[in-house]
Amino acid sequence: MSFFDKIFGGKEDAPERKSFWKTLESVEDLNKAIENSYHHRIAIFKHSTQCFISKTVLKNFEREIDNLDHKVELYYLDLLKYRLISNKISEDLGIRHESPQLIVIEDGKAINSASHEDISTNQLT
Known about the structure:
By secondary structure, the chain is an alpha/beta fold. It contains four helices and five strands, in the order αβαβαβαββ. The chain has one domain (19-124): Glutaredoxin (3-Layer(aba) Sandwich). The protein has helices at 3-8, 27-36, 52-66, 83-93; strands spanning 21-23, 42-47, 73-78, 101-106, 109-115. The chain has a five-stranded mixed sheet with strand order 1-3-2-4-5, sandwiched between helices. The chain is globular. It holds the Pfam family BrxC. This is Bacillithiol system protein YtxJ.
């Protein structure tokens, strides 16, 4: 591992995700997530797996989640693999696409969203 990989993180083919993430890999997964928002608050983290900034924001967010008492159902979307799902989220919820992005949903509607360094567990409460 090079010096820069140690500091910034090396290339990872399949980065290990925390166990609290539910992955969005189909429109059906998205529809189920939105349906779940009628029972409890959910959040979708849209992540670009090739972007250093997105990777850093994701790691920081995961650290915050580990220390959070309030539980929210969290969904992870790989933007590079599932761009059509990201587009559907933007269309259905009226949220402009950004990456990385956290969208908080309740009762089928986006109640909060943040991107880049503004992503924090503060959006979840």
